[in-house]
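Subgroup meeting minutes
Present: P.N., E.W., G.H.
Scribe: E.W.

1. P.N. recapped why we're keeping a running log of single-chain structure predictions: easier to compare across weeks, and new members can see raw inputs and outputs side by side.
2. G.H. added today's entry (298 aa).
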Amino acid sequence: MSRLKKILNIVKYKYADKQWNIAICDLQQDLQPINIRWLKHNYSDRWFADPFLIEEDKMHYVVLVEEFMYDTGKGRIARLTIDKKTCRLIKNECLLELPTHLSFPNFIKHNGIIYVIPENSRSGATYYYNYNDGMKCEGVLVYKPLTDAVIASFHDEFLIFTTQSYNCNGNVCELFHARELFGPYEKKQDICFVDNIARGAGHIFKYGNHWIRPAQICNNDYGEGICLQKIVTEGEKIILQEIKRILPPSKEYADGFHTYNVFGNSVVIDGYYYKSKFVKSIYDLLIRVVLKFYHLFQ
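Output recorded in log:
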């Protein structure tokens, strides 16, 4: 069964499913990405998504990403070194691979150390890793399956903005808070939206005098676009006010995007397109038939 699954995974992700990539963009005053430069690489057995810029010099970007492997059907955390001039991949390093799927390598700097908090909801908990110490696991932030959790410091407390796996693409953003970065965290409140714009899409960033939270639009499909939300406080209560929605800004990856990380006057994003939605529907039907017959003859 494992060999059959591996073959089916490769067929699905290479020929029928979403094809993702990451891009470096300039940022307009209205926060719209422009001058989009998609990553150039020679891989045909994987894709990259969920980019977080972690280092930069005059010649290179260093970006943490989800590296999704077709043969395993799951993601791992990689570090990409990218040439600034050509946007070509120079170096690819796998930093963390586990039996469970990993994505969204969000990070936070604290007391001179960078901690990475990848999305690992299938493990049932949210772990944090010491980037400076070779991605050593330091502990658990929350013993819950948080999805695309982002930590920010507000008014002498740390807040986690997240959804949970049982409603990961829904309309409820859950907030957890703690006095110290590493907890213990307790539930603070839920923020409910009219539609499915609760799941996180990147670091919280400052724009003018406001803090902005990027979130995903997931009304008809996963990661259709980005919703930017202004963070407002009323006493102890947090309010997220929508200020802008951004649909896929590029024809090359026009079916969706779900990561938006601002750095300076630039932003790193991802994007996807379907190889063929028709082929994918046929593939899904065939898989159900194949698996049914496979189990019948075991």
